[in-house]
């Protein structure tokens, strides 16, 4: 692995670690205490803030994907070089798994603690609101489509330079406010994989949907973005700078 790829994948590892640890940590640790009052709103903002903060921290290195669906969607939009796709996804999944392990270690340090789903995603009996497979599938495809569409638009030529991390972070907040009751919000296969490994076999068995749906929505968004927005040059710029090759 060359030096540039190592830097990029390290950035993706830390970004996805923070997204999973921060977002799921808010759900597992803080939302467990009603007196804190963070509820769905607090968890939604926690996920949005993780993306916003890491986009500016390491976005200039890797582009700040932190999500296999983002990487694949931007590849479909011709915004991500093919050589980055697999290394990014591997780093993202490992980052999410390490974050979930760290969070599990902390949470289980409390006497009597039980995972209770461990902020995992699910459909049917494992959906927070007991929504069926079709409803959850549509929700994940649509919300991921919109998320990638927003990323592609805010990082296109002509968009305000240097500010893309803000609407992207707030888009993720809104997505969580919509879909936490339905699927507990994935739109990110890595984020789904890490917690599921510690939540139990029933959550692992449903992971296929939280890879299939976000990737399908991301590819569709990438194809639309390729047609709608002016094609970007394949150069090494980032979400917080220009976003041409992220």
TrEMBL record:
Primary site of residence: membrane
Membrane topology note: Multi-pass membrane protein
Family, as annotated: Belongs to the MIP/aquaporin (TC 1.A.8) family.
Keyword Hydrolase: no
Location of the protein in the cell: Membrane
Record flagged with keyword Nucleotide-binding: no
Origin: domain of life: Bacteria
Transmembrane annotation, as ranges: 12-32, 38-58, 85-107, 131-152, 159-183, 203-229
Keywords assigned by UniProt, alphabetized: Membrane, Transmembrane, Transmembrane helix, Transport
Native organism: Methylorubrum aminovorans
Name this protein carries in UniProt: Aquaporin Z
């Amino acid at each position: 692995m060359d030096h540039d790829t190592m830097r990029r994948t390290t950035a993706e590892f830390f970004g996805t670690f923070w997204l999973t640890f921060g977002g799921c940590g808010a759900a597992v640790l803080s939302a467990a205490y009603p007196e804190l009052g963070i509820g769905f709103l607090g968890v939604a903002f926690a996920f949005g803030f993780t993306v916003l903060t890491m986009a500016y921290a390491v976005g200039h290195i890797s582009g700040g994907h932190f999500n296999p669906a983002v990487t694949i969607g931007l590849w479909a939009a011709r915004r991500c070089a093919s050589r980055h796709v697999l290394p990014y996804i591997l780093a993202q999944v490992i980052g999410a798994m390490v974050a979930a392990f760290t969070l599990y270690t902390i949470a289980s340090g409390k006497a009597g603690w039980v995972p209770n789903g461990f902020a995992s995603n699910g459909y049917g009996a494992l959906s927070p609101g007991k929504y069926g497979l079709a409803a959850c599938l549509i929700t994940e495809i649509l919300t991921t489509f919109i998320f990638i569409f927003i990323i592609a638009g805010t990082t296109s030529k002509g968009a305000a330079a240097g500010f893309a991390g803000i609407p992207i972070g707030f888009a993720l907040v809104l997505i969580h406010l919509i879909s936490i009751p339905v699927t507990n919000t994935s739109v990110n296969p890595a984020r789904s994989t890490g917690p599921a490994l510690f939540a139990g076999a029933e959550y692992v068995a449903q992971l296929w949907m939280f890879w299939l749906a976000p990737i399908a929505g991301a590819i569709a968004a990438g194809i639309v973005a390729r047609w709608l927005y002016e094609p970007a040059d394949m150069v090494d710029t980032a979400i917080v700078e220009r976003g041409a090759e992220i």
